Amino acid sequence: MGYNIGMRLIEEFLAKTGAQRCESFRETADMISKVGFKMFLNTVPQIENFSSDGTSFSLILTENPLAEFVELPLTQYPKIHKELWYSQLYCGVLRGALQMVQLDTDVYFVRDSIRGDDKTEIRLKLNKVLKDEIPAGED
Amino acid sequence: MTIYSFYIFDRHCSCIYSREYTHTTPGNGRTNVNNESDVAKLLFGTLYSLKTLSLKLDDSQSLNSLRSFSTGAYRVHFFESLSNFKFVLITDLAVETLQTQLQQLYGVVFVNNVIMNALSPVEFGSAKITNDSFVRLADNFLRLLPVFE
């Protein structure tokens, strides 16, 4: 969910910022939080828990514009609190946008404060840097 | 100074827009007739190889990109967005550089009329840009450049 939004959003991001290619995933992380989130959602998530090989990190959202006035209903179905990631949209958007700049990533929620967790945490993991496609039938 | 033609290639190496300008006859030139032609394919191949080779000559791995190349008869101006859309303008030799103009063409005309247009795809497949407002605004943009005569 959100993948197609990300595909388009990245073009707007590139056009408005005129950003150049990041040289490391750390730089990408800064770009996402300080420029991307700032520009589209006016919030700057913190970057934490960078893995030692530099291929995964967490975004901690101190405020979440998507869930600002949202409460999960207390129902008899315990699934809502266990399986629903209300702001799942972010994951798709980030994955779509990064894919368009040749970064193949996995993005998933770890914690979400509207579920009662202490923080909202999104984990980004870089799988590989994609190569340019070459025309079919050529080597 | 003259602009002869304009091409856009997408991430999957296909030509999604081609535009030729005529300067002698009062006609408007042709739009999207050359997408499948050898001209478009050769142009893509040349740029692709030239880009790869020329970046290998520089081992500093810093930010570097192919901008243009010229022959005795024409100059090819090249701009590639980070999302791998390639914009190519073919002009005569008198035109020195069109980098900022190509960037504007991408950032203003292309993004506003193709990417932000919900009716237009972003993964083109075998489709082309046939969107009237893009064609009109891109034409206007290029015609108003001092190098377009």
UniProtKB/TrEMBL annotation, chain A:
GO cellular component terms listed in the entry, alphabetical order: endoplasmic reticulum; Golgi apparatus; TRAPP complex
GO biological process, one term: macroautophagy
One of the Pfam families matching this protein, by short name: TRAPP
Alphabetical list of SUPFAM superfamilies matching this protein: Ligand-binding domain in the NO signalling and Golgi transport
Major location category of this protein: endoplasmic reticulum
UniProt KW Endoplasmic reticulum keyword: yes
Subcellular location: Endoplasmic reticulum; Golgi apparatus, cis-Golgi network
InterPro entries: Bet3 (IPR016721), NO_sig/Golgi_transp_ligand-bd (IPR024096), TRAPP_component (IPR007194)
Keywords: Endoplasmic reticulum, ER-Golgi transport, Golgi apparatus, Transport
Record carries keyword Endoplasmic reticulum: yes
Recorded family membership: Belongs to the TRAPP small subunits family. BET3 subfamily.
Protein name (record): Trafficking protein particle complex subunit BET3
Organism: Australozyma saopauloensis
Lineage summary: Eukaryota, Fungi, Dikarya, Ascomycota, Saccharomycotina
UniProtKB/TrEMBL annotation, chain B:
Pfam families (UniProt xref): Sybindin (PF04099)
Gene Ontology biological process: endoplasmic reticulum to Golgi vesicle-mediated transport
UniProt-annotated location(s): Endoplasmic reticulum; Golgi apparatus, cis-Golgi network
GO cellular component, one term: Golgi apparatus
Assigned keywords, A-Z: Endoplasmic reticulum, ER-Golgi transport, Golgi apparatus, Transport
Keyword Endoplasmic reticulum: yes
Family to which this protein belongs: Belongs to the TRAPP small subunits family. BET5 subfamily.
Subunit structure: Part of the multisubunit transport protein particle (TRAPP) complex.
Name used for this protein in its record: Trafficking protein particle complex subunit
Organism: Australozyma saopauloensis
Lineage: Eukaryota, Fungi, Dikarya, Ascomycota, Saccharomycotina
